[in-house]
Structures are given as structure tokens and as C-alpha cells.
Specification:
heterodimer; A: about 260 residues; Rossmann fold; eight-stranded mixed sheet; 12 strands; B: about 280 residues; alpha/beta; 9 helices
Chain lengths: ~260, ~280
């Protein structure tokens, strides 16, 4: 594990590079695209474990924090969703350089899936495979999901919309501008520009079905349901984390299967 | 301000991030920002990052790092307890900063298990001149019971609620089980156990005699144990804190401080308190 800052020196991103540990190194590397907010905190361990499992299969892996999140510089409210999409591009270049490879695949969890897919729609080449793990399927549906919690807990000090229209949720906030940007992203309507796409979900709900139906005709699309308990947005008093081993294994299998 | 990612120690290093101000005030101690439970060094709701950057604005260097097996630090082999490992690893980080940057005085900050570790390291290492803790060890007193049960004795709603529970006990149990987390969680390997009150009192007395300053913030998330600021001192009657202890209680604050306005209050108050220490 090599922690480092990279990218624009005025506003560097934080990343952890995991070099491959297998003797036979793969010719592609894997970029892990994190979720947002409490889901990011909750998935950190799962991402580390996923990275190490992929290392054992010979893949170099980079996990990183978007601008204004985690250890990256800046504040989340000063960032745009498009910044985070662009951060994926910066991280890809960094990973290619560190791993000395020309090909990269992306794994995106929750909001990281939405952002990674958006990146892929804007960049036709450079990404071999996109693995979407419990992905947010559209900005509208994500906001609706969060809003449902807000409506259930009126007068909450940690789940509410403020006067400026920012959505506060479990200690993190999305600004009105970010919410508006998100509303314009709908994976079901996104033009898929890469060949290999895997959708892996731990719970078969309406959102995941929507994406499955939208993309099922796409050649190279693969859907997998690996049942696992867990709510990424749950928050408890002690900062408990989610480590769905079965799903992590499915993500690894999805990456490995592609090279056969 | 500049942040540098570091790997400290061999063969299994600890990962940390030094937040170094442009101009460091050599009189001010550096701050060790400790893990809370299994949360990585970013801290609950990114609070550790926010505190580190606020401290840097005041010329104070800090390091936020992961103990082995947590966050970005790989596990180390060995059979030591969490307490022993934490003390050894925090000492290692202080040794590193002393060797590389000549820092000789430190303040340890932590929330929950991080608060416990800050107490442990302060007892173990005289380079610690202050501890800033969120929800540290605390113990009920008679005043806790009065504040907790007093209003209920005179509340009609509470009496009705109490009668309902007695008449329909199954309903009450069911409600409890529905709110119990049944997720595939990895629990912290550290199970928080409060040492006997007398032991903590002795330890605090030792720290006070060594002129260690203590800032204790209590949240409403721990109100089952503490429900007003003066309770902490009351629970340690044998300790002569003098002016070395500052206690604050925020009843509306939850344990991981999810409310944004309260996050700012805690960040600013901790930075201000640290800034006053020499």
C-alpha cells in the first residue's frame, strides 16, 4: 500500500496505490471509484480488501478520494460532480503511470458507479471494463432515496435540506448545484461507449431492475445478483462498516472473468 | 499548508498524513489525531481532516494516522492487546516526528476509542502535554440520575408510556428488535470497556500532577452515562483538576457528530483549545 497525493498541485487528490502481489502481473490495472458521504466511510475497508484480492490476481489497483472528499484537498461544497468525473481521468493517468500499463478498468460503488459510468460515456477509449457495484442508477433516484429518509425523520439535525437547497445527510452535504448536476445523469439513458459492463447488486430492487432493463440489449453487458445484507446509507453510533464478502468476491470474479 | 502522506515503521508501516503549516510555531505542541473505532484516519464525518486543516491555519502541525489493521495501515502480527498495540504504535509515530522534525511535545486527540487511546498514551509517555477527547470514559453520579429520571417522575406522558410497556411488553420488545442492526458489519476488534472509576481517577490525578491539560467534550450520544457538563468532575471527586480541565457537553450532538453546525463548533473549539497550549 503506497499512500500519496497526486494531480493538480493546487488541489491534490489522495490515493493509495496497491501494487500487484502475484508473480504474474496483469496488463491492465483497476481503478476503484468510491461512493460519497457516510457511504464512503462505510466502504473504505471493503475497498481495501477488494484491492488486495485483485493484487493477488496480479492487478495493480488505485483507490482515491475525489476533490473535497476524504483526504483530498478542498471542500465538497466547492466541487462539482463534473470535477469528480474529471478526477477519474486524472486518477486513470496516475494509475497507468504507476502500474506501467496502457489499459484500465473501473469499479464504481454507489455514487462512484454513476460517476464512473459518466466518465466512460464521455471518454470512448481508455477504459476496458466498467463494473458497477450497487450503483446509483440516476441522480433523480438517488435524491429521491435520500429524500425518503429525510421525510421519515422530520426535525433531524443530520438529514435535511437547508435554506440554500443543500441536502445534508448523515454528516455530509450535497449542494443545490451538485444536486442539479446529478439530476442530469441517468445511466438508463446514457450512451454506453465501452464494450464490457458488469452490474453487480446485493439487492434486487426497482433501481437495479431499471438499469438491467435499460442495458440488457447492450452486447457485453453482464448482470449479477449476489445477495448480501446491507444498507450503504445506514449509520450507527460507532461508525460501523459494511464488509459484504460475497459481493467483493463477485466483483473480483467479474474482473478476472473478463480476461479469459 | 502542505499535507504529506507518510509510511512510518518497518516491515509493516503505519500510514499517516502530516498536515504541516507554512510557518510552524515551535512553542506549540504537535497534535496526534487518533482513529475512532474502525473508522480510518479521515475520521467520523471527515472531522479529523477538518481539525487537521484548522490547526494548520494556527501554525500547528498534526498527523492523522491509522493504527495497524485500520484504514490504510496493514495489520501487524502479534498477540498484544489493543491497548498495548495502540500505545506502542502512537509512541512510534511520536518517535518519528521527534527524529524527523524535532518535535518534543504532543497533544493526543481522539473520539470514542481514540479518546481512550489518548488517555492511555498520556499515561505512558511524558511527551504528551495535553489530551483532547470526545466522549471519553465517564461514570454516572447521583446528579445523572436526578436529571435523567427527575423530569419523568412529573411527566404524565412518561407515566402513560410506562403503563403501556407493562401492559403490552411484546410490542415494546418487537420495536426494539426492529431497530437493532442486523447488517453484515465488521465490528471493531476493540470492544470498549470502561475501566473501574477509581482506576481512571488515579490515572487522571497522575496526568494532572504531570501538568497535562485535558479537554473533554461529551455528546448527547453518550447521555446514558453523562447528561451534564459538571458531572464529569463530580464523578472524580478525588482528582484535583485545578484549571487544567475543560469540559463541554452538547446534548444535541450525536456520537459521530453528523450535524454540520456542531461539526464546526467542535472543530473550532478543539483548534482554539490546542492553540492555547504550550
Amino acid at each position: 500500500m503506497n499512500p500519496f497525493f497526486f494531480g493538480d498541485s493546487a488541489s491534490p487528490l489522495y490515493g493509495v496505490y496497491h501494487p500487484p502481489t502475484a508473480t504474474q502481473k496483469q496488463t491492465e490495472a483497476i481503478l476503484l471509484c468510491a461512493p460519497f458521504g457516510q457511504e464512503y466511510m462505510r466502504s473504505h475497508r471493503a475497498f481495501r480488501q477488494l484491492a488486495m484480492l485483485l493484487n493477488k490476481k496480479g492487478y495493480a489497483v488505485l483507490r482515491f478520494d475525489y476533490k473535497g472528499t476524504g483526504d483530498a484537498f478542498g471542500e465538497p461544497e466547492d466541487s462539482t460532480i463534473q470535477d469528480w468525473v474529471a478526477n477519474i481521468g486524472t486518477a486513470i493517468e496516475e494509475l497507468k503511470h504507476s502500474a506501467q500499463v496502457d489499459t484500465v478498468s473501473l469499479v464504481g460503488l454507489r455514487l462512484g458507479g454513476l460517476i464512473a459510468a459518466r466518465y466512460c460515456s464521455e471518454h470512448a477509449s481508455g477504459v476496458n471494463k466498467l463494473v458497477l457495484w450497487d450503483t446509483i442508477v440516476s441522480g433523480d433516484r438517488y435524491i429521491e432515496e435520500l429524500n425518503t429518509y429525510i421525510e421519515k425523520t422530520p426535525n433531524s439535525k443530520s438529514k435535511y435540506f437547508d435554506e440554500q437547497g443543500s441536502l445534508h445527510f448523515n454528516g455530509f452535504a450535497l449542494t443545490k448545484a451538485q444536486l442539479n448536476e446529478l439530476k442530469n445523469i441517468d445511466l438508463g439513458r446514457l450512451e454506453l461507449s465501452i464494450k464490457n459492463v458488469s452490474q453487480i447488486c446485493s439487492s434486487e430492487n426497482g433501481n437495479q431492475s431499471y438499469l438491467k432493463e435499460s442495458w440488457s440489449a447492450h452486447q457485453g453487458y453482464h448482470y449479477q445478483h449476489t445477495a448480501a445484507p446491507g444498507d450503504w446509507n445506514f449509520v450507527d453510533d460507532f461508525g460501523g462498516i459494511l464488509l459484504p464478502q460475497q459481493v467483493i468476491q463477485s466483483v473480483v470474479s467479474s474482473i478476472v472473468a473478463e480476461r479469459r | 499548508m502542505k499535507e504529506i502522506a507518510l509510511k512510518i515503521g518497518k516491515p509493516t508501516p503505519l500510514t499517516g498524513i502530516v498536515a504541516a503549516p507554512d510557518k510552524i510555531d515551535p512553542e506549540k505542541p504537535a497534535v496526534l489525531i487518533l482513529n475512532s473505532g474502525v473508522m480510518h484516519h479521515v475520521g467520523a464525518c471527515r472531522l479529523s481532516v477538518k481539525i487537521a486543516r484548522k490547526l494548520a491555519e494556527s501554525g500547528i502541525l498534526s498527523i492523522r494516522f491509522d493504527l495497524s489493521g485500520i484504514g490504510d495501515s496493514a495489520p501487524r502480527t502479534g498477540s498484544s492487546s489493543f491497548h498495548e498495540t495502540a500505545i506502542a504504535e502512537i509512541t512510534e509515530v511520536m518517535d518519528y516526528l521527534e527524529q524527523k522534525r524535532g518535535i518534543k511535545k504532543f497533544i493526543a486527540y481522539g473520539l470514542c476509542s481514540g479518546a481512550d487511546a489518548s488517555y492511555d498514551i498520556a499515561l505512558a509517555d511524558e511527551r504528551i502535554v495535553g489530551i483532547a477527547q470526545i466522549d471519553p470514559y465517564c461514570y454516572r453520579t447521583w446528579s445523572w440520575y436526578i436529571r435523567h429520571y427527575g423530569p419523568k417522575l412529573f411527566s404524565l406522558a412518561q407515566w402513560i408510556h410506562s403503563i403501556k410497556i407493562r401492559l403490552f411488553p411484546q410490542t415494546s420488545e418487537k420495536r426494539f428488535s426492529e431497530t437493532t442492526d442486523s447488517e453484515d458489519l465488521e465490528m471493531p476488534s476493540y470492544i470498549r470497556e470502561f475501566p473501574p472509576q477509581a482506576d481512571i481517577a488515579k490515572g487522571l490525578q497522575k496526568l494532572i500532577e504531570r501538568n497535562v491539560r485535558i479537554y473533554s467534550v461529551f455528546t448527547g450520544g453518550q447521555s446514558e452515562l453523562l447528561n451534564h457538563a459538571s458531572q464529569f468532575k463530580q464523578s472524580m471527586p478525588s482528582v484535583d483538576f485545578g484549571t487544567q480541565l475543560k469540559v463541554e457537553y452538547f446534548p444535541d450532538m450525536d456520537h459521530i457528530i453528523t450535524a454540520p453546525d456542531l461539526q464546526r463548533v467542535v472543530r473550532d473549539n478543539i483548534a482554539k483549545w490546542v492553540d492555547m497550549q504550550r
